[in-house]
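--- STAGE predict ---
source: upstream dedup step, 1 unique chain passed
mode: sequence only
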Amino acid sequence: MGSNVDPLVVGGVIGEVVDLFVPTTMMDVNFGTKHVNNGCDIKPSLAADPPFVKIGGRPCHLFTLVMTDPDAPSPSEPSMRECLHWLVINIPGGTSPIQGDEVISYVGPKPPLGIHRYTLVLFQQKSRLSTASIELPAKTRETRAEFNTRNFADQNDLGMPVAAAYFNSHKEPNRRRH
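--- STAGE serialize ---
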């Protein structure tokens, strides 16, 4: 890897959301024509609909995709860390989340204060998961808040991530009509 520092480390995704891992699966994330490079800025209006996510791997392998905001409600006081924005299980390798089972439907970024990070973390499942057996904190089921990617991976036997990406987003100024 040389002197290139992983942007996931620089952005605090590794450390605050997941532990250091070796990416083993390709994951390509796009909002419309905008490709998500780690640390890039995506306007909330552009991310109102789910991103198109292309996942590598073989069709016999199943994956779980978790999207969270570790900076809710504000980066300086992330008391709701992490806010769960999307959860899809049983995604066959070589496809996209559309082919999986949505446990928590997508909701786009709505950062009230400051610049928020939005993380997409991919796990390879050991076997098919049942949506009914997915362990989620009661608070997360009610409000999407206080989700923990690490705990979720442990409780559902997902192991270490196989891919991750993140982007930044901040509140767009209100457009005033003259």
